[in-house]
Amino acid sequence: MLIKILLVAFLISISTVFAVEPDYQAIIDQAYDNYHYDNRGENANYIPALAQVNPNYFAIALITVDGKIYTAGATKVKFPLESISKVFNLALVLQQFGNIEVLKKLGANATGLPFNSILAVKLQPNHIGNPFVNAGAMATVSMIKGNANQKWTTISNNLNTYAGTTLEVNQVIDKSENETNQHNHAIAKLLEAYGKFYSDTSMAVDLYTKACSVDVTVTDLAKMGVVLANHGKSPYTHKQILQVNYVSNVLAVMATAGLYDTSGNWLYKVGLPAKSGVGGGILAIVPGKFAIAAFSPPLDETGNSVRGQEAVQYIANQLKANIFN
Ligand code: GLU
Predict the structure, then answer these.
(1) Which range marks the domain in which residue 101 is found?
(2) How far is the CA of 99 from the centre of ligand 1 (A)?
(3) Residue minimizing CA distance to atom 4 of ligand 1
(4) What does the CA dihedral 154, 260, 199, 122 come to, rounded to 10 degrees?
(5) Where do runs of H (alpha helix) occur along the chain?
(6) Pairing of strands 69-73, 79-80
(7) Angstrom distance (rounded) from CA 173 to CA 15
(8) 139-188 pLDDT, tens per residue?
(9) How many domains is the chain partitioned into structurally?
(10) Is residue 235 part of a domain?
(11) Distance (Å) from CA 168 to ligand 1 centroid
């Protein structure tokens, strides 16, 4: 009997020591092959410059918490963060104000209405919804400390720290958005009327738009995400970028509001906190393990990248990454 127990213990310890890592590269390559020819969806066209981007671009990156990078496709192509910038602005105000103040000022509930809904601003008891709909995202930027220049320095330094590189603003996208974002200015003014905006509205809308226009590659995006997967710490510099107890706050808002009004369906199917942007990027986090980023400009009706969602879902399934399982 004793010999049998010792043998089982030995086998378990051997299998732990020699636990084989999943073949991340093969899974990513397969995801790329599966969805490369999926032509559904259309580029965002309410921002004219985004409509011009080549719809065939498709790229995927997965980075593990020990910093290993796996990629496929158009990994050199840059695209604007758009709504994904909201994740890192939220992280920033959590650091500056703490999670109680942020919840009080910005909320964390899904609106059940489109990301740029004026109706939601009017109907919701706190008027804001959460930091990932445009109302809450612009209010987030309005909270960031300092004057316009200081706010921008803080926002861009924060994005650069997550990415571990110096990111640039895509001036063409920024100009195009500024020429067509009257709707966002209207939302900000409405919030101001409700006492829910914390700086000059046009200054904050401009900075919010500039942050949305920051260009990344799919690898930059996965590097930004892996900090959240790694409990707020960079796997490269080992610097604690986001205080550990705020990471779950960010992931919670990603889980409930990261994919616009289909966030519930996404969580039901894939079970991962994620955030997409109308530039075609999507970032999903597997806490303690890895981050998956994908980029492809054509979007479904809700505003989420078609190939990006398919690829992340495939990879998450293959790696049994659903956090509810
Ligand atoms: N800058 C875009 C806007 O405010 C971001 C939208 C998005 O990616 O969801 O309309």
Answers:
(1) 21-318
(2) 24
(3) 134
(4) -170
(5) 2-17, 24-35, 48-51, 85-97, 99-106, 118-123, 134-143, 148-163, 171-180, 182-193, 201-212, 218-229, 244-257, 263-269, 306-318
(6) unpaired
(7) 51
(8) 999 999 999 999 999 999 999 999 999 999 999 999 999 999 999 999 99
(9) 1
(10) yes
(11) 18
Cβ proximity of 205 and 148 under 8 Å: no
Beta bridge partners of 215: 80
User: Is residue 308 helix, strand or coil?
Assistant: helix
Task: For residue 6, tell me if it sits in a domain.
Answer: no
- Please give the structure tokens belonging to residue 53: 């981007």
Query: Which residue is listed with tokens 């959460």?
Result: 130
**How far apart, in whole angstroms, are the C-alpha atoms of residue 224 and residue 201?**
28
CATH number at residue 25: 3.40.710.10
Report how far Cα 13 is from the mean position of its chain's Cα atoms.
Answer: 38
Reduced to 3 states (helix: H, G, I; strand: E, B; else coil), residue 140 is helix
DSSP state of 21: P
Beta bridge partners of 281: 295
| 67-125 pLDDT, tens digit each | 999 999 999 999 999 999 999 999 999 999 999 999 999 999 887 777 788 888 888 88
The residue behind tokens 């084989």 is: 20
Which one of 174, 278, 300, 304 would you pick to mutate in the ligand 1 pocket, going by the greatest count of ligand atoms within 8 A of its CB?
A: 278
